[in-house]
Structure formats: C-alpha cells, structure tokens
Amino acid sequence: xxxxxxxxxxxxxxxxxxxxxxxxxxxxxxxxxxxxxxxxxxxxxxxxxxxxxxxxxxxxxxxxxxxxxxxxxxxxxxxxxxxxxxxxxxxxxxxxxxxxxxxxxxxxxxxxxxxxxxxxxxxxxxxxxxxxxxxx
Length: 136
What we know:
Cytochrome Bc1 Complex, Chain D, domain 2, mainly alpha, about 0% strand
C-alpha cells in the first residue's frame, strides 16, 4: 500500500522523476536520501557537492545504478535533476546547470573501470574545495 502511494503517476516530469527515483534508486539511497554510508553514499545535504567538479558531475551519471538503469538518457537526466533539487540542500552550488539527455549519454558511454576509486577521488577533490563538505 505504501509503495503504491509512492509511485502514483502525477503526469508531470517532476512526478515522473520522483517515481523513477522510487523504482530505481530508493532501494539503496532510501526515500529520504540517507543512503547507508560508507557503502551507499548519502545524497541528503551532500549530492550538490558532486556538482562542484567535472569529475563529480560525471560520477553521478556513472554510478552502477544510474549507468546500468533501464531509464533512457532523458529520464535519467530528469531523475538526477530531481535528486539534486530534492536532496542537495545547502550543498547545492549557487550556479548549476541541470543535466540533459546529451550530457547523460556522453557520460554513460565513458564509464570508469573502478567506480569506487572515482568516488574516493571525487570526495578528496570536493574536500579540498570545501573542507566543510567532509563527514561523508
């Protein structure tokens, strides 16, 4: 019953993106974006930091759940934009460009061999830019 309420189709892009998050991302990142650190990164109040570096921005499209999802590039872009606006909080950069299908396709086509190593590199780069972004 609860899941049925969460996946109600609302007929708009934000509602569809939320539904796609529930169906494709919530299992690991939880409905509130809390994740299960350190294995499953927390999105809540953290995901915006990934947008502060080019590698971080690419990383969000290349994590296995995103890169391997059955969502097409446009729908994945919409989900990523929903995640950013829903969970970034204070971590959201003052200026950010929403993802689009072309960018998502480009990043999905160039997946790294070791996504965990990329995550650690991105995290280290973010912490150099903003030491307050630590405590992952």
